[in-house]
Amino acid sequence: MNEKLVLLTDQEKSDLLFLREEEKLARDVYIYSYNKYNMNIFSNISNSEQHHMSNVLNLLNKYGLADPITNNAPGVFSNSELQTLYNQLTNTCDVSLNKALEVGANIEYLDIKDINKFKSHTSNSDLLDVYDKLTCGSRNHMRAFVRQLGTYKPIYISQTEFNSIINSSKEQCGRQ
């Protein structure tokens, strides 16, 4: 029996294309920070972000969307907003290790905020499944960065949501 492929709305397409590069932004900033500070947290989480990029690419391929990542070199983006953000974030990472860790936490909070918005744009189970896994991963990454920092004030999500995430245990994110 052939599975019927559901067509995506323009908004769903836009969300996926943005998310593909947003995950690359996270990966690239963490690679940058690892190269500067040689802390395993950056290397480990950049590897996870590469996996997130692959999850989104699988959806792009499934739905016949062109990959917005035409140059996979670190720090190169098709989306000008993400290019500007990458430049700003790496400049902040240059200030200190503590700032680089804060940038990591901020990226994860931004990912959660954006994915929650994308979830509100769809009822497609393929998209929702990947969004749930990516959000779970971001919560785990956030906990790791905040553990390194000791104290942190969220800027992209509410203090209540932050407390809920930080005070919960590491999640398995769909793995058995």
Question: Could you describe the 3D structure shown?
Answer:
The protein has 176 residues and is an all-alpha fold. It is built from 6 helices and no strands. The chain is globular, with a radius of gyration of 16 Å.
Write the layout of secondary structure elements.
Blueprint (H helix, E strand, L loop, with lengths): L9 H28 L2 H23 L17 H14 L3 H23 L5 H25 L9 H8 L10
Helix pairs in contact: 1-2, 1-3, 1-4, 2-5, 3-4, 4-5
Largest sheet: none
Overall structural class, as computed from helix and strand content, comes to mainly alpha
Radius of gyration: 16 Å
The first-to-last residue Cα distance is: 28 Å
Low-pLDDT stretches are: none
Shape: globular
Count of DSSP strands: 0
- The residue-averaged pLDDT reads 91
Strand content: under 5%
Helical proportion, percent range = 55-70%
Give a summary of the structure in a few sentences.
The protein is mainly α. The chain is 69% helix and 0% strand.
Keywords for this entry:
mainly alpha
